[in-house]
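Please produce the structure of this protein holding zinc ion.
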Amino acid sequence: MFQAPVSTPMACTGGPLSALDAELLIVPWFQGDTIDAVAGLDAATGGEFARALTSKEFQAKPYELFFTAITDMSWRARRVAIIGGGSGERGSDLIRRLATAAGLAARQRYVARAAFAVRGQGDAGDLAQAVAEGLTLAEFYGGSYKTEDPPPAAVPSWTVAAFETGDGAQAVAAVARGRILGECSNLARELSNEPGNTLTPREFAKRATALAGEAGVKTEILDEVQIEKLGMGLLLGVARGSAEPPRLMVFRYDPPGAPATPVLGLVGKGVTFDTGGISIKPAEKMEQMKDDMAGGAAVACAMRAIALLKAPMRVIGIVPTTENMPGGKAIKPGDVLKSASGKTVEVINTDAEGRLILGDGLWYARQLGATHLVDVATLTGAVVVALGKVTTGIFGAPDEWVERVRTVGNRAGDRMWPLPLFDDYKDQIKSDIADLLNTGGRAAGSITAALFLKAFVDDVPWVHLDIAGTAWSDESKPYLPKGPSGVAVRTLAALAFEKF
Ligand code: BES
Ligand code: MN
Ligand code: ZN
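Below is the modeled complex.
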């Protein structure tokens, strides 16, 4: 049987830029660079580049683009695109974004073969990986249901030009890694982009486990009967209002020879559509709630990346998935649910459903032996108030584990900032008739949501990432078009390579 390749390779070459065989050569340029910062480049343009700099036509502002011909016939590329990198840090975070922005610009111009010259500060492998990730992120297309627009330009074949360091084994491996991480981010974006009517919990489970399964991850889909047997009253409670049955995805990555511990446990919120349930949401922007499974998609696609990249440690992934609907059997404010852990919850707002299904999910990850937990969820509107649309809220304990995840996240291009979990906030989620309330009111809404999750993790090191603001971009940026961002995929995958 024909098996589609799980990843398509990306070229990596060393050698002088003049020898690069591409239609378009892309070169980052930083404010403060002297004209000879890239040897021979200006001469290859017949002095056109220096002229543009002097006249201020091109000022190297972030993401600014300058296209010109390469007139020197001893160069193989015929055109160059110089992309501005500004005057700030030139680390891999910026380079990744420059690669995406330039990649998108190349696609707009129907370029078939583009090469990106790796420049910047820091480890050469990190930079090459970031370029591969960034170029791959430029391949995402969100208009798959359009029937009348001309089809999008074919994806160019990309080359990462490690012209300063050479195409040694390190650069080649870094590009391969970046390629996989970019592709897995795009797969998560595709899932998040999918509407609620096509991506039901059953369909989500089918697609997400297929993605991970073809990479070698062991997968299981538990149905409502098995979920009931596990006693997951929180997940079942949320699912009651929907005609679609819930599912629980279980991913296991067990590389031969891996030590018994640590076991990384990844848990993702998989609400395929969140109407709010009986505590129904206003109509305005409700359509956005199709991406309320972005955390679950990040977990599934990170599991795929982890297996493709052959991470050295054991990893478990858990994605509870359901709709949150206001059907005749739906849970009502005031209802009490019993979790798989035994804790009881008084549901005073059915729109705080994510923490419910994650409570059961986190408990199960622990049951399966996770020693270090990370959950990812579009959990609260309040985190958007606190941190806006560019920063993921990070919570957890102990501090060392939170710091570790944050450091890895920032390196992967997922910006995170911590919010506190002081015990004092716990009063807000005390119930008169059960162990917990499912909401703590408006004040510190993201914190009380995180404290609710904490009740289900015991003493296991745990981090919660609230991606409600970062999973979806409302406006188009040079490096991120409107739509799903694929947040957290690269962070979760990179964690499986850490020592803890
Ligand atoms: N899925 C939403 C959170 C959300 C809001 C994600 C906006 C992305 C953008 C979550 O299930 C929810 O409804 N949370 C409520 C909690 C409240 C009822 C305590 C919220 O944030 O309003
Ligand atoms: Mn909700
Ligand atoms: Zn939700």
